[in-house]
Amino acid sequence: MKKILILGAGLSTNILIDYLLKNAVEYDWHITLADINEEVAKQKVNGHERGTAIAFDSEDELKLTSNVSENDVVISMLPAFMHRKIAEKCIEYKKPMLTASYASDEIKELNEKAKQAGIPIYMELGLDPGIDHMSAMKVINRVKEAGDELTSFYSFTGGLVAPEYDNNPWNYKFTWNPRNVVMAGNGVSQFIRNGRYKYIPYHRLFDRVLTRKILQYGDFEVYANRDSLKYRGIYDLKDIPSMYRGTIRRPGFAKAWNVFVRLGMTEDNYTLENSENMTYRQFLNAFLRYEPEVPAEIKLRDYCPNASDPVVMEKLKWLGIFDERKIGLKNATPAQILQKLLEEKWSMDPDDKDMIVMQHEFKYKTNGIEKMIVSAMAVIGKDQTETAMAITVGLPLAIATKLLLIGEIDHNGIVLPTEKEMYEPILDELESFGITFEESEYLVG
Amino acid sequence: MKKILILGAGLSTNILIDYLLKNAVEYDWHITLADINEEVAKQKVNGHERGTAIAFDSEDELKLTSNVSENDVVISMLPAFMHRKIAEKCIEYKKPMLTASYASDEIKELNEKAKQAGIPIYMELGLDPGIDHMSAMKVINRVKEAGDELTSFYSFTGGLVAPEYDNNPWNYKFTWNPRNVVMAGNGVSQFIRNGRYKYIPYHRLFDRVLTRKILQYGDFEVYANRDSLKYRGIYDLKDIPSMYRGTIRRPGFAKAWNVFVRLGMTEDNYTLENSENMTYRQFLNAFLRYEPEVPAEIKLRDYCPNASDPVVMEKLKWLGIFDERKIGLKNATPAQILQKLLEEKWSMDPDDKDMIVMQHEFKYKTNGIEKMIVSAMAVIGKDQTETAMAITVGLPLAIATKLLLIGEIDHNGIVLPTEKEMYEPILDELESFGITFEESEYLVG
Known about the structure:
2 copies of one chain form a homodimer.
Chain A: E1 2-7, H1 14-22, H2 24-27, E2 29-35, H3 38-45, E3 51-55, H4 61-70, E4 73-76, H5 83-92, E5 97-99, H6 105-108, H7 111-117, E6 120-122, H8 131-145, E7 149-161, H9 178-183, E8 189-193, E9 196-200, H10 202-205, E10 210-213, E11 219-224, H11 231-234, E12 242-249, H12 253-263, H13 280-285, H14 296-303, H15 310-319, H16 334-345, E13 354-366, E14 369-380, H17 388-405, E15 413-415, H18 420-432, E16 438-443
């Protein structure tokens, strides 16, 4: 019997646990689900004969040691900053580890140690990062194997509310960590187009969107992710002239969001004086010029020209930034106040479903002709437990765990799912769950 | 005989050393000038019977110990980040210390230890911080002593090129640390006006200037400093409804500088790919949209509307940001590249003189009437050695050292020059050097 330890039983683990428990008898697995809240873990194991729920505090060194040493493989669903500690323990006890998180520099430093211990640390096995790598590499390798030359790779992903439940002026709800959404793009965004490097400072990011139609889901817009350049290395496309990665929203989002950025409301490195007793209208006024005899709405239009668009103004009014309502947050940063307001308005209703949309655009030269492949995928959640996010993050991680335990994959060190022996079986099995990429091909020009 | 140790013999120490050597015989002092470059120290001591020049490396713990322990008072002119180490040594050997630098949080942590050791650490004894505190407190205390109520305090300082040598389109040259000028304002700027807190994010700072005429020197503009709010505590004006501090430039500077900010050229937290072989024109293009068939000048006007002002465009062209000239800086950040370009253009000619301008604006209520006091000062440098900056930074520090050694002031712990017993004698003596504040008073409204 193989023993699997899952650390963390948060929302995104539902499908992962489900998959592993469903396959536990056939493959002779036992799953231990560890969470700081034992009750949450118990509910998710739900009395399954192959599952055990335990209370777990990552600060408890002794318990971490005993849990890691007693299991055969460790899946960490803990917040990313905790992975390093878990990885060090896995190396010490020579246990393979898997996560859906980015391979941070801190994790990459452990590459040699993991190799010496002879164990793999599989990172980026979720949706983005995860399915994006696998589905991209599938096309990239096919083009390369045909002897053709890739000239451009654009790739976009977004977590949105499903069309049927898309009923607010922003066409957006929180389907994932709200803080990450508020802070998105903070830092410079770098990409390359036809050999020219491009740098967009954060305060201009939402000025510079692309627009796309994706599958049957209509119109979207895309803003650039922070570091598209590093993917040239990850995808072995060192000399590709164009490389761009972006985040998908519905059209009009960026133009309105940009008002918050231009005001300074997404900043997170200082706190506002007396934020607790401030109203949202005073919060807004704190970023506008001192003109107490002019309504904030009019000052805003003057200071952020985007707000003079009535479609933008409707979004802002709907959120309540002009309201004389108390914020009630002590010593809050602008970003924290904005997040509080958004969480009241952008939260999912109990019956809402989420949606994941991903699109890759490859250009390549074949026999002197330039062609373009568009590969797109959309997943709609089933309910608030089986969300599209939980499905697309949990399934590839679960399948990779299976492949590892049945000996189909075998690595040492830090590994991303960019090799054929990983992405092929994972993508194949994802198809059986309805996660499929639809391809179309065009002549360029 | 009292022995004075000066650590660091940089440009801003010329006047300080001069003053102390000139007074050394009368007061029976010996001055040891320590610099990493012994030759520089020797030149400045210039064989004076009361002076010794020594080589000094702040990394040399033993030498630091012997130097501090053998002297009676220590003046640190080293870069600010080194002060903590010096201060700890001064506390250990119970030697008073003086600097012209900000009392950082790191230094303030030593307050209790300095008190226990029974020694003063005088900080902020230069121009800004320094003369600004002294000249402000003089008026603030006068108003308070008359039983009147201060309602507003605005204060501006700038280091500029003297009018006669002000001969470039920016009306600006580097008279101080170029890096600080390039990075100025990076972070949020906070102030309060009529009880309303105002926050300006960095990317909007240069949109929001004040304009002023100062003394006989014509028109200036002012942009907000980062933290004006903390001065309510420093000046004991906790409940003052308006408090604003700013930096002075000549009119038009901010409108043109804002183009660099809006492009992202002042960012310093990432490096550009292949910066060494890039031209300045390519550097500019890296921040503009991808439109290789459109001239950078035209793209820039579209992307940064300020650049469509011919006065702004003249400034940009004069700097050479459109030039096809190689940058030649390896792995450089945008701010480093911009600084290199500016240093070629904004450097002082050998005969140029600098200028310091400072203006305070106090409003107060007396017998139900609101009045305003404007207190302004300007100093023009004598040459490139006796710069206005060296005079205004060095003299108050030198005078404070004298006051300490003759027993006119006596403190424990971290001390700023905000008490009458300090600012009065210092301001009085500064007047004898021609550093005078000119006051005018108005009725408000």
